[in-house]
Amino acid sequence: MKKTGYVFLGLICFYLVLECLSFSKLGQESNPIIIGINEWTGYDPLILADQLSLFEKNDVYVDIIRCKSAKDEMDSFTKNQFHGAGFTLDEVFSLISSGFKGKVVLIIDFSMGGDMVIGQPYIKSMSDLVGKTIGYEGSVVGEFLLNRALQMNQVKKSSVKLNDVQANDWLSIFKEKKVDALVCFNPVASILLDNERGNLLFSSAEIPFEIVDVLFFSESFFTNNKLAITKIIKTWFDALHYINSNLDQSAQIIASVKKISAHDYKNGLTDLKAPDIKLNRSLFNPESEKNIFKYSQVIINFMIDRGLLSKRIHTTDLFLSELLSEVEDINYQGR
Fold first, then answer.
1. Can you say how many angstroms the Cα of residue 311 is from the centroid of all Cα atoms in its chain?
2. In whole angstroms, how far apart are CA 38 and each of 33, 69, 167, 194?
3. Which of 55, 129, 189, 332 qualifies as a cystine partner to 116, CB 3.0-4.6 A?
4. Are 109 and 215 in contact (CB under 8 A)?
């Protein structure tokens, strides 16, 4: 074969390799980025973004996978079934403590009452639960909220009975009165209060800025896919903007996917604060008066004190604002 023939064949092989690499690149339609979430209301803008193809409009393809419980979500994440996920900070700290490496790139929300301990109609206060049964999901955030509720009401954990209840069973287990109280979050919490005569015994409103939801990616994925993650962050703010501008329509879309009422979805929004892009950037700045580095120490201290962490988590390299700074500084508004 002539030399030019070899060159031509080589060029064909080269372009075929390039095409294959391009075809399989993460974030393309044929190979979407997978993000896991649970049923917490704060993650719902990701559902809306998925339904309205907002990711694709920002030139990134993402599959949003809904898990029945926070525990299922964490298990799937540690098995590398997700590239990223929405987690509470205490869940992130638990993952890191177990040896998992990752980066927090976005503050999704602060729970300002959306996580609750709800008692049956005959339970009026946390002190009424002595000798009674409390249902809670055996996840980090469930244990965290329960511990804080018991601690602040001077009820010893040893004085109550604990029953592990998965999130998809919360409604039925409460209706059937198999527990005297339930640790849960919206939208189920609002349903129990509105329709089942439940009593609010404790909520995250009493521990502001201690339950924080974030967007978390594995370190290896973060290192190799910064542009794609930046597009995902932009899409998040696009979804928030859409919800604020079209609340009724957004509520209908999200409620339809989650099989709840639009009313229950909108109720859940009152108990969380989703920071806009400006506040997100401020929270990631260690020199700002209110920053995530400071807020996180309260959570870490409590988790160490309660044996939920075996050692202190170093947050300096955990919270990274570099991708937030790449998102266009347009007038995104949070809730």
1. 23
2. 17, 6, 9, 22
3. 189
4. no
pLDDT in tens, 217-226: 999 999 999 9
Q: Where in the chain is the domain with CATH 3.40.190.10?
A: 20-110+211-326, 115-206
CATH of domain 20-110+211-326: 3.40.190.10
Q: What integer pLDDT is reported at residue 18 of this predicted model?
A: 42
What is the per-residue pLDDT for 142?
A: 85
What architecture is the 115-206 domain classified under in CATH? 3-Layer(aba) Sandwich (3.40)
**Following DSSP, what letter does each residue of 281-308 receive, concatenated?**
HHHT-TTSSS-HHHHHHHHHHHHHHTTS
Those residues whose C-beta lies under 8 Å from the C-beta of residue 197, and which sit 6 or more positions away, are: 121
Task: Output Rg (C-alpha) for the chain, integer angstroms.
Answer: 22
State how beta strands 115-119 and 133-136 pair.
unpaired
CA 283 from chain centre, in angstroms, equals: 17
Amino acid at site 161: K
How large is the average pLDDT for residues 317-329?
87
DSSP for residue 157 = G
**Whole-model pTM over 0.85:** no
Residue 334 has pLDDT above 80, yes or no: no
Separation between Cα atoms, residue 268 and residue 166, nearest integer Å:
20
How far is 103 from 113, CA to CA, in rounded Å? 26
Task: Specify burial of residue 195 (Cβ count, 10 A radius: 0-12, 13-18, 19+).
Answer: exposed
- Asked whether 271 and 111 are in contact (CB, 8 A), the reply is yes
Q: How does strand 102-111 pair with strand 272-273?
A: antiparallel
The 10s digit of each residue's pLDDT in 96-119 is 999 999 999 999 999 999 999 999
